[in-house]
Amino acid sequence: MAETAEIFIDGQRVAFQAEQTIMMAAHAAGIYIPHLCHHPELKPHGSCRLCVVEVNGRKLSACTTLAQQGQIIHNQRADLIASRRCVLQLLFVEGNHVCPACEKSGDCQLQALAYAVEMISPRFAHFYPQRTVDASHPDILLDYNRCILCELCLRASRDVDHKNVFSLQQRGDKTHLSVNSASGQLADSTLALGDKAMQVCPVGALLSKQTAYQTPIGARLYDQKPIAQGEAHDG
Ligand code: SF4
Ligand code: FES
Questions:
Q1: What is the CATH number of domain 6-76?
Q2: 62, 79, 158, 160: which could form a disulfide with 196 (CB 3.0–4.6 Å)?
């Protein structure tokens, strides 16, 4: 009889298939591992570090590490949660995230994760970067202030929509999202509301102009259920 392939996440036995990552196996078993740059329909990226778990004593990103027989994985230990809180505190000061004024409030994975790890204070000094808003497109708003550089839109546009609307420019703290059009404006790109790239932004950086505030604040996804207890906006 074939042996069942299994890993153990916080003591729970989790079956997995060949080529599944720890993130995929956990997701299939209904276990939430925090993530911002992961989407089940896109290639793993491993950049946000929210999904770091301990695997047989080593800290590894769950979205890029393949599940292997018998792995002992910690997902909820206090030191892992403290690391995630620190990553989130950095993300919040790197950009300009004004949650009460954001259309995505209550539907935003960044905000929901901050609540999940009980991020109370900013901890680090705010960068207050000077960023712009691209409102040139008739249907779509791109607010660079809220972009966390997860590259989900970039990967979705390139690999699913086959349009390659976005790229990242420069390096280090100068890294920023850019629109691949002659003017650098969305109006001159081929981005359309129905694109996969428009469905994957975990924050309020890419928004439809046509559907704002259809669900009132207080009745949104994470207003009703914490992110760890429900499905993220993953598709
Ligand atoms: Fe990620 Fe959204 Fe920024 Fe695209 S616009 S890189 S999806 S945060
Ligand atoms: Fe794994 Fe971002 S979700 S590094």
A1: 3.10.20.740
A2: 160
Q: Which ligand 2 atom is nearest residue 35's CA?
A: 3
> Three-state SS across 151-187?
CHHHHHHHHHCCCCCEEEECCHHHCEEEECCCCCCHH
Q: 205 in ligand 1 pocket by Cβ < 6 Å?
A: yes
Domain assignments of the chain as residue spans, ordered by start: 6-76, 81-223
Q: Among candidates 104, 107, 85, which has minimal Cα distance to 146?
A: 104
CATH class of the domain at 81-223: alpha beta
Does the reported pTM lie above 0.90? yes
Ligand 1 pocket member 203 (CB < 6 A): yes
For ligand 2, the distance from its centroid to the CA atom of residue 1, given in whole angstroms, is: 36
CA distance 149 to 24: 22
In this structure, the residue with its CA closest to atom 8 of ligand 1 is 147
Q: If you count DSSP H runs as helices and E runs as strands, how many of each does the chain have, helices first?
A: 5, 10
**Digitized pLDDT (tens) for each residue of the chain, 235 residues in all:** 456 799 999 999 999 999 999 999 999 999 999 999 999 999 999 999 999 999 999 999 999 999 999 999 999 999 999 999 999 999 999 999 999 999 999 999 999 999 999 998 778 999 999 999 999 999 999 999 999 999 999 999 999 999 999 999 999 889 999 999 999 999 999 999 999 999 999 999 999 998 888 999 899 999 999 999 865 446 4
Q: Is-contact 61 34, C-beta < 8 A?
A: no
Which numbered ligand comes closest to the C-alpha of 44?
2
